[in-house]
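Problem 12. The chain below contains 182 residues. Write out its predicted structure in token notation.
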Amino acid sequence: MKVTAEPRSDQWNADDFTGGPRTFTIAGVRKGTAEQKYDIDLVEGEGRAWRPPLGMLRVLMSAWGDEADVWKGRRVTLFKDATVRFGKDVPGGIRISHLSHIGNKPLDVPITIARGTRRTYTVQPLPDAGASGQQIISDKVKADTAKAIAENNVAAYLEYLAANSAPPHIIDYVNTQAGATQ
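Solution.
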């Protein structure tokens, strides 16, 4: 049994990445709250939104433009950066390490890290497809698919994926795996 320590929350927090980085597929973007301008829904996001701070939004906009619909189906690797400051405190935060759809070279984006202080932030390319040309299926989607099959709950899982704008290759994967077990 895997032991986890998860806070009850509707958003991803830096502490969720203590075990290491995770790669997600963007399902969509919607208006956020006064605290964070946008909520980014993630296919593998377990129903929780990612609420990127302004600096990470600027990285996304530099990479993919400012039309949220373009972001759907693209992938992002997030990690906990223990050096992120909030005022005088250093609580850590979520940063982007890799993005799909940026070509084969790292992307450098100037961002503000403190009032009056700007630094170049570098994001590495995340392959758009596997070496064989097939789309990549995350370990989370594989595990959730296996669980849905084991619990005879594939239809509900497919509904969840469709409601969260899962890319076609993920829907195809679930259907293929479910068909293989019948």
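Discussion. The mean pLDDT is 82. Students who got a different answer should revisit the alignment rule from Section 12.3.
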